[in-house]
Design a protein that fits this description.
The protein is an alpha+beta fold. 32% of the residues lie in helices and 46% in strands.
Length: 133
């Protein structure tokens, strides 16, 4: 593979990762657990507060999110998504986001690391490390 081909592969990986993030946010805000599950690889891993949480499948993922976000959560917005490392089959993202109440008042702002990978030809989030509870 030439340098140009590698650059094109990495550019395509970055676009795929951003597409996963857009689809994830749309599904999250719609509370569409089926669409959200399509944006995640399972098992899915999340490190927060020194605890590694593992979801083996999509069945309880949305319910767990609602518990973490709190009863006032209504929707989330990505404030920034920055690629800080990428390969043709994996992208590391530095993500900042804001959670809102229904009246659009800010509930919380957080930062996290997302790892988006291509497994068996499908791009999805494989793991996260978050400062959010």
């Amino acid at each position: 593979m030439s340098d140009t081909d590698d650059e094109k592969s990495i550019e395509a990986a970055n676009e795929a990762a951003r597409g996963v993030m857009a689809a994830h946010l749309a599904a999250l805000n719609a509370q569409d657990s089926v669409a959200m599950a399509a944006t995640l690889h399972f098992p899915h891993y999340r490190l927060s507060g020194g605890v590694m949480r593992v979801w083996e499948d999509a069945d309880i993922y949305l319910a767990d999110f609602r518990k973490r976000a709190g009863g006032e959560w209504h929707h989330t917005v990505w404030d920034s998504i920055d690629v800080f490392a990428a390969a043709p089959d994996k992208v590391h993202l530095d993500v900042r986001f804001t959670r809102f109440r229904e009246d659009d008042s800010v509930l919380a702002r957080h930062r996290s690391l997302w790892v988006i990978s291509c497994l068996d030809g499908r791009w999805a989030a494989q793991l996260r490390s978050s400062f959010a509870p």
